[in-house]
Amino acid sequence: MSKFDDALDSYKAIMTEAGFAFDETLLTSVTKGLGPSIYNRDAAYVAGTDPEELTRVKNNYLVGKLGLEDSADLDAAIATVMQSLIDAGVKARPRAVVYYLLCKHFGKESIYA
Q1: What is the structure's pLDDT at 1?
Q2: pTM higher than 0.90 for the full model?
Q3: DSSP state of 92
Q4: Which class for 1: exposed (0-12), middle (13-18), buried (19 or more C-beta within 10 A)?
Q5: Which tens digits make up the pLDDT trace of 22-81?
Q6: Are 15 and 22 in contact (CB under 8 A)?
Q7: Would you give the end-to-end CA distance of the chain in angstroms?
Q8: How far apart are CA 113 and CA 109, in angstroms?
Q9: 3-state helix/strand/coil string of the chain
């Protein structure tokens, strides 16, 4: 298997173990959209306690990629997604999984169609 397939399989396993229903095609598209960052240990994960990191998620992904307007709703959605992963026992939060959950939260799946 390729490195991409290995990474994607690990994201699928996390989603399954956490009890999240997911669309495999969308998860694949979100993962592909992250490019080579999924192979860099530091870039592949979201540091949920780092305010600068969470701001990057908001500005680069939610505003930049999904085209949402900056608002408190974006910060609340990020906090909700991070808490849902914590509640599910996911200690290391892969960027692909976080972005997938945010994409679903805002109903922006068409961005990846």
Answers
A1: 77
A2: yes
A3: S
A4: exposed
A5: 999 999 999 999 999 999 988 999 998 999 999 999 999 999 999 999 999 999 999 999
A6: yes
A7: 25
A8: 7
A9: CCHHHHHHHHHHHHHHHCCCCCCHHHHHHHHHHCHHHHHCCCCCECCCCCHHHHHHHHHHHHHHHCCCCCCHHHHHHHHHHHHHHHHCCCCCCEHHHHHHHHHHHCCCHHHHC
